[in-house]
Amino acid sequence: MPQTSRSLSLTVIGLGQMGGNMALTLKAAGFAVTGTDVFDAARTKLASLGLNVVTPDALPASDVYLLSLPTSAHVREVLETSPGLLARAPRGSVIVDTSTSDPAMSRELAEKVMAAGLHWLDAPVSGGPKGAASGKLGMLLGGDETTIERVRPMLEAMSAKCTHVGGPGSGHVVKLANNYLCAAHLITTAEAVAMAAQAGVDPAACLAGINSGSGRSAISEVNFPEWVLSERFDSGFTTGLMRKDLRLAREAAEQLGLPLPLLQMVVDAWHDNTEQPTDSDDFNHITTPILARASQAEGNQ
């Protein structure tokens, strides 16, 4: 293990499925890692797995504070609520936000972070809990190159691929764009498979054909065989989180004065029936009612 990998001290704030697995991965890579969470159960679980855990009011001085939180509001709270990281973090330390956050708020918070003598990096992730546990996440980086280079050993331990897309907030912009496409592809792929099934083509055969052509996507290549056709629906990402991300994408477009009618249609499709799927359901369940309608139509023939 190179000495540079062990020289950064890290505090992970938010020990859910993503943050907890990231913390354990970084610990296994040789970093000095401390974790915290507002929920006792999360702290207890990670402590039982060997992570050094403290309560939120006992954060240690660290080189990097890695945030894995549900929303921008939670990020703001951690930074600003007295005593927040803006006041408590050692000058020169780095705040890394791996959440999927509101880009406008991220840029506002980044300015406050830098004004406080700290450094900022937005680094939203993809790959789910499995990617976090295996160190194979995808990361979109928004910040300056100097900050990225400083924490690169940590990023390399966490991810299979890091892509620097611009200054503060840019990572969150691109993450919202990515999740918009993911949400749209789930619906369009489900409709394509339903159409093929209604015409007598086996869904797996339909997907094999799509994946050999230009209509393929990560949804058709990964999500459908892994979670939809298998009916496992255990990706670790919920419908509620995807709905939140779609609303953020719509708000970002509105703030830019950019009319995106298809984005609005996708947002509407994900919100039309909040009971099927529910917010707590796996996000791949958005395909279930579409595929069920095809099955019903086939049975009525």
From TrEMBL:
Residues 169-286 form the 3-hydroxyisobutyrate dehydrogenase-like NAD-binding domain. Pfam families: NAD_binding_11, NAD_binding_2. Keywords: NAD, Oxidoreductase. Gene3D superfamilies: N-(1-d-carboxylethyl)-l-norvaline Dehydrogenase, domain 2 (1.10.1040.10), NAD(P)-binding Rossmann-like Domain (3.40.50.720). It comes from the Bacteria. InterPro entries: 6-PGluconate_DH-like_C_sf, 6PGD_dom2, 6PGDH_NADP-bd, HIBADH-like_NADP-bd, HIBADH-related, NAD(P)-bd_dom_sf. Residues 10-166 form the 6-phosphogluconate dehydrogenase NADP-binding domain. This is NAD(P)-dependent oxidoreductase.
